[in-house]
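Write out a record, fold above all:
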Amino acid sequence: MAHPNPRSQPAPPGRAYGGLGPADRSAARRERLVEAGIALFGRQGLRATTVRGVCTEAGLTDRYF
């Protein structure tokens, strides 16, 4: 019997981690990325700023970008 492809099924609503639901965690990550980007743009300029640099500055892995 073949197993269904997990990607074809709707995502579960998500669990709370650290007291935050999925939408709140996503918003917090977005805020951290924006703040890190602004800081890096100011320090090293737009052309020298990379996605990995922004993620590192924000303390997040680049999969969240």
